[in-house]
Design brief:
single chain; alpha/beta; six-stranded parallel β-sheet; 28 helices; binds FE(4)-NI(1)-S(5) CLUSTER with Oxygen
C-alpha cells in the first residue's frame, strides 16, 4: 500500500493500484516504472522527421556551452536546436488541434444528419441556442423551421473546416482588440484543416527553419482549435443535446454497482453516450438485464465523454484519465465502450485479466484485442442497443472472487455553461456578467482561473490539480474547470456549494454563498475550454475590466497535462491573452530561444505567455501574482485592500 500511496491522493485509485498488483495485472502505474522518459525527447531535442536521423541535439549537461559549440549543435540537415524544438512544439499543436477539430467535424456531420431527419432518435433540443447561433452566423431565421435553420448552420460550420481563404467566423466573437492583434500578426486562421495541414507541411524536413515563423503557424493552428473546431463542437453539442444547466451527481469508482450491469462510456464525442443514456433506461433492456441476474443497468462515464453526459444528464463519473484501467480492475465492469482520444491501449491487456468486454465503436480508433461494434448516428438506437446487450450478456461472466468496488464516491454539482453562469449571476431576465465583474472590481473576487487538462502518471495523480485549486480559491480566485482536472477537484469535494465555506477565502466564499454556487465551477469537457474563451469575452464586454482578454485579472493552468491537445489549448489561451502555467514537464527545454519566445516574447505581442512550474503552490502563486498585476493595471488593486465585510455589504450580496 505504501508504494501505491505515492502514486495518487485518491483513495479509490490507491486501493485499485494495490488490487491490480494482487491480481497480477499490469497497469499504467507499473508501465511508468519500467518505461522511463527519453531524456532527449523530453526536452524536445530529438528530430525524427526524416530518415537521415533521428538526430539528437540535447543541451550539454553540467557545463556552459560556448557559441562555437552551439553552432555545431545541429541535426544532419543543419537544423538547429531551435528549429527542432519549434518543429516538435508546432507538431504537438497540430495534432491537438486536429483531434479537437476532427471531433468538431464529426459532431457537425451528426448535427446535419439530425437537421435533415436522417438520424432518428435525436432532435434539436436547445432552440434558444440554435437561434442565437443563427444570429451569430448570419443565418436567416424568418419563419423557417428549426431544422431548416439548423441545416444552414451545419453547412456554414462544416465549411469552416475546408475553407481556404478569409477568417474563421467565430473569431468575430472575440473582443475587437484581440481580433486586431490576430490580424496584425497574421495568425487569424483561414480554415481549420488548412492550418493543421500547413503546420505539418512547414515542419516537414527542409521547409520552415525559423523558429519564430514555425511558432507563428503553431499559433494559427491552435487558434483554429479554440475559436474553431472546439468551439464548433461545443456549440453544436449544446444545440443537439441541450445546453448544460446545474445538475447534481457523483464521481469516483464507487459509482459502480455490484448488483447491476456496469457499463462505462469512455472517450470524447457525446453522440453515442447520449443514446446509451436513453437506451440503458429502456424498460425492455432493464428486463433483459434482470433475466441475466442483474438488478439494473448502471451507466457511468470516463474522461471527457463522462463530462459531456454529466453536464447534460447528471450521469455519474467513474473516474479521470489515470483511472480508466482501474475501473476494469474492480472486476465489476461488464463493458468498457470507447470512441476516440485518451484511450490507453493498455485497456485491452487489463480487460484480459478480468471479464470486461472492451468495445471500440469508431472506425478511426480500433484496438487489437477489442471487439469492434461500429456506432452509426443514423442508426443510433439500434447501435446503442446492441452495445448495451453485449454488456448485459457479459454480466454472468463476472468472477465474483475478483470483484471489489472501492466505496469512494463524492457529490458534485456540474453544468456551468457560459449561459448558465450568465443567468445565475444576473438572473434570467437580466443575464449578464455584471455581478461577477463588480465583485472582481470591489475585490471580493480577486480574479478568475481556468484550471484544466489531464492526469500524467509522472506526477502524483490528482495531487497537483487539487493543491493548486485549493490555493487559488483560498486566495479568492474563482476557478473554472474542464476535463480530467475538473474530476480531480470534484473527487476532492471542491464542486459543492459547501466547499466555499470550507476552502475559499472570505471574499470568494461570500459571493459563492450569496449566489449558491461552488467556488470551483465545472464547465465540461476539453472542447468546452471554448466556453472559457466565451466567458472571458463576456467579462470584457460587460465592462470595467479593460477592453481585451489580456486585461482581465485571469490566468490558466494545466498542472498535470500529458496530451498534445493540452499544448494546443495552452497555445490558443496564450494567443488569446491569457497567462498559462503548465506543470509536470515542459517540451521545449532543449532550446532557450524557443522557451524564451513562449515564456517572454509572446507577452509583448499577445499579452499572454506560457510558464512552467511543476510545484502547484508556486504555480498558483505565479497565477495570483499575474492576477494582481492585472488588477493594478486596471486600477482596482486598492479596492481589494479596502474590502471589509460589514452587514450592509452582506445584504447587498444576498440581493445578487
Ligand atoms: O480531452 S483532460 S486526459 S480526457 S486530453 Fe484526455 Fe487530458 Fe483528460 Fe479529455 Ni482533455
Amino acid at each position: 500500500m505504501a508504494e501505491a500511496e505515492k502514486k495518487s491522493i485518491d483513495q479509490a485509485t490507491i486501493e485499485m493500484i494495490t488490487k491490480a498488483a494482487k491480481d497480477e495485472c499490469n497497469i499504467v502505474f507499473d508501465r511508468a516504472e519500467t518505461m522511463r522518459p527519453c531524456p532527449i525527447g523530453v526536452e524536445g531535442s530529438c528530430c525524427s522527421n526524416c530518415a537521415m536521423g533521428p538526430c539528437r541535439v540535447p543541451l550539454p549537461r553540467g557545463k556552459e556551452e560556448t557559441p562555437e559549440e552551439k553552432q555545431k549543435r545541429r541535426g544532419v540537415c543543419g537544423a538547429t536546436a531551435e528549429t527542432i524544438s519549434a518543429r516538435n512544439f508546432t507538431r504537438k499543436i497540430a495534432a491537438g488541434s486536429a483531434a479537437h477539430s476532427d471531433h468538431g467535424r464529426r459532431v457537425t456531420h451528426a448535427f446535419l444528419d439530425i437537421a435533415k431527419g436522417e438520424a432518428p432518435g435525436y432532435e434539436i433540443k436547445d432552440e434558444q441556442k440554435l437561434l442565437q447561433l443563427a444570429l451569430d452566423l448570419d443565418v436567416k431565421i424568418g419563419d423557417r423551421s428549426n431544422n431548416e435553420i439548423a441545416i444552414d448552420i451545419g453547412e456554414t460550420l462544416l465549411n469552416e473546416f475546408g475553407k481556404q481563404e478569409g477568417e474563421l467566423l467565430f473569431l468575430k466573437r472575440a473582443p475587437l482588440k484581440r481580433q486586431e492583434i490576430w490580424r496584425k500578426e497574421g495568425v487569424a486562421p483561414r480554415g481549420i484543416d488548412r492550418e493543421v495541414v500547413e503546420a505539418m507541411h512547414r515542419t516537414h524536413m527542409g521547409v520552415d527553419q525559423d523558429y519564430r515563423n514555425l511558432l507563428l503557424q503553431g499559433t494559427r493552428a491552435a487558434l483554429a482549435d479554440g475559436w474553431g473546431g472546439s468551439m464548433i463542437a461545443t456549440e453544436l453539442q449544446d444545440v443537439m443535446f441541450g445546453n448544460p444547466s446545474p445538475v447534481a451527481s457523483q464521481v469516483n469508482l464507487g459509482v459502480l454497482k455490484e448488483d447491476e450491469v456496469n457499463l462505462i462510456i469512455h472517450g470524447h464525442e457525446p453522440q453515442l453516450a447520449e443514446m446509451l443514456a436513453v437506451v440503458s433506461q429502456d424498460p425492455k433492456m432493464i428486463e433483459y438485464a434482470k433475466s441475466k441476474g442483474a438488478k439494473g443497468i448502471n451507466l457511468a462515464g470516463m474522461c471527457c465523454t463522462a463530462n459531456e453526459i454529466l453536464m447534460r444528464h447528471g450521469v455519474p463519473i467513474a473516474g479521470n484519465f489515470l483511472q480508466q484501467e482501474l475501473a476494469i480492475v474492480t472486476g465489476a465492469l461488464d463493458a468498457m465502450v470507447v470512441d476516440v482520444q485518451c484511450i490507453m491501449q493498455g485497456l485491452a491487456n487489463v480487460a484480459q485479466c478480468y471479464h470486461t468486454k472492451l468495445i471500440t465503436t469508431d472506425e478511426r480508433a480500433k484496438i487489437e484485442g477489442a471487439t469492434h461494434m461500429e456506432f452509426d448516428d443514423r442508426n443510433a438506437v439500434e447501435s446503442a442497443k446492441a452495445i448495451v446487450r453485449a454488456a448485459i450478456d457479459n454480466f454472468p461472466n463476472r468472477d465474483k472472487k475478483k470483484v471489489y468496488i472501492p466505496p469512494q464516491k463524492t457529490d458534485l454539482i456540474a453544468g456551468f455553461s457560459h449561459e448558465t453562469i450568465n443567468y445565475l449571476l444576473g438572473g434570467l431576465f437580466r443575464a449578464s456578467y455584471r455581478p461577477l465583474n463588480d465583485n472582481i472590481i470591489n475585490g471580493r473576487i480577486r480574479g478568475v482561473a481556468g484550471v484544466v487538462g489531464c492526469n500524467n502518471v509522472r506526477v502524483t495523480h490528482d495531487d497537483i490539480h487539487v493543491t493548486m485549486v485549493k490555493e487559488l480559491i483560498k486566495n479568492d480566485v474563482l476557478v473554472l474547470q474542464t476535463g480530467c482536472s475538473a474530476m480531480a477537484c470534484a473527487k476532492a469535494g471542491l464542486m459543492v456549494p459547501e466547499a466555499a465555506a470550507e476552502y475559499a477565502g472570505e471574499g470568494l466564499a461570500s459571493v459563492c454563498e450569496a449566489v449558491g454556487i461552488p467556488p470551483v465551477l465545472h464547465l465540461g469537457a476539453c472542447v468546452d475550454n471554448s466556453r472559457i474563451l466565451i466567458a472571458a469575452t463576456a467579462m470584457v464586454k460587460d465592462g470595467g475590466l479593460g477592453d481585451d482578454i489580456s486585461d482581465l485579472p485571469a490566468a490558466g493552468a494545466a498542472p498535470e497535462w500529458m496530451s498534445e491537445k493540452a499544448i494546443s489549448i495552452g497555445q490558443y489561451f496564450v494567443a488569446s491573452g491569457v497567462f498559462t502555467v503548465f506543470g509536470a514537464t515542459w517540451p521545449t527545454t532543449g532550446s532557450k530561444e524557443v522557451t524564451d519566445f513562449l515564456f517572454k516574447d509572446m507577452e509583448d505581442v499577445y499579452g499572454g505567455k506560457w510558464a512552467f512550474e511543476p510545484d502547484p503552490i508556486k504555480a498558483a502563486k505565479l497565477m495570483i501574482e499575474h492576477i494582481d498585476k492585472k488588477r493594478k493595471a486596471l486600477g482596482i488593486d486598492k479596492a481589494r485592500e479596502r474590502v471589509l465585510y460589514d452587514m450592509e455589504m452582506r445584504r447587498e450580496l444576498d440581493a445578487v
